[in-house]
Amino acid sequence: MPRPKEIDIDPADVDVDGIVAAETLLAAGNFTIGGALASGGSVTFDYPRQLVQDCTGNEAGRTWTITGTDEDGVAQTESLSGLNATTGENAAGVYWSSITQIASDDATANDVAFGTVDEVQTKTYPLDFYANEAATISVDVTGTIDYTVQETFNPVLDLSSPANNATWVDITAFADKTADVTSTATRNATAVRLTVNSYTNGAEIQMRIIQSRS
Question: In CATH, what class is 5-9+122-210?
């Protein structure tokens, strides 16, 4: 019997300006990555996370270009549209393990900040898709947390090709759950991952994956 994979997620509190503290740019250029989560001009998160922007003025005409790495440590870049005096999440649902640069295509109207929200995703966990039995997955929660476990049937062992390029589907037994669940992935699935859809500060979640090779 193979040793189970055990994943423990104890996410830090949300920090809406933890990447870039409120900053006004006078021309196109890079924001200063110097929030509470930053070190040496970049951010490496506790777990892959979605981002949030907080615009105090009308930034609807601006484009932010974000550079960093995805949930599996593969380089990625994304363009986000600025917002009009509001706070908003990363609409594309992209998760980041690290951020090395956030650039603006022009001056900003007022202060803009970037930080994290209550959405976390694990890295990709490959499965033995040749196994005769599907993987058994157990999820235990502490506190208030909503989660989904997804699976894919695409090749994911070459992580130089981002897992975001795979087609992920929710495992029905683990879709938008808030309590402990034990069930299985689909036989011949190539990988699974867990997404935390929301949580309150102090919540935790553990996922255990075991798959027989017989």
Answer: mainly beta
